[in-house]
Inverse folding.
């Protein structure tokens, strides 16, 4: 993942500029997270002490406990449905994924996705593919044995160069 991407924010986060304006850096979302998926950013600047998820280290398990505890509205308290988390989108990297590089059938990202069948589907009944229903929790990035999945925050504009195309919507019998 590029170091120039904005951080991956918790479920229900406002757009990055608005999020930075609204977040009071209280850490209540971090405290509410039972999985320790959130951490407060260090360093200096506007992002200091704001929450982020580092999916390769600890993904968001979409428990949805952080939005209701946010006192400032930086996280929308009405975001309680995991399918509406809106954190970002995962991308399968064709140049790393077993399914594309050496023909090994791997479905780890599909098997572990909390929105399996919606966010990750089996294209052709065999190959995992990300759809526009992906919310960017990062579980697929965390479990991928060859680091062939990257989650890009919703506030980023673009995608990895070797990304497998994102499907429009899940279709039955794919």
């Amino acid at each position: 993942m590029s170091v120039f991407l904005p951080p991956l924010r918790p479920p229900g986060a406002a757009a990055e500029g608005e999020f930075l304006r609204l977040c009071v850096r209280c850490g209540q979302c971090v405290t509410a997270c039972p999985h320790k998926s959130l951490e407060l950013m260090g360093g200096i600047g506007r992002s200091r002490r704001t929450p982020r998820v580092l999916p390769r280290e600890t993904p968001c398990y979409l428990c949805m406990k952080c939005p209701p505890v946010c006192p400032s509205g930086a996280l929308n308290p009405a975001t309680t449905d995991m399918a509406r988390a809106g954190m970002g989108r995962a991308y399968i990297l064709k140049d790393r994924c077993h399914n594309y590089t050496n023909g090994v059938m791997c479905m780890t990202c599909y098997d572990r996705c909390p929105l399996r069948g919606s966010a990750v589907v089996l294209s052709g009944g065999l190959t995992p593919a990300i759809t526009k229903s992906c919310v960017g929790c990062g579980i697929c990035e965390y479990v991928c044995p060859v680091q062939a999945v990257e989650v890009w925050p919703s506030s980023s504009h673009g995608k990895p160069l070797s990304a497998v195309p994102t499907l429009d919507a899940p279709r039955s019998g794919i």
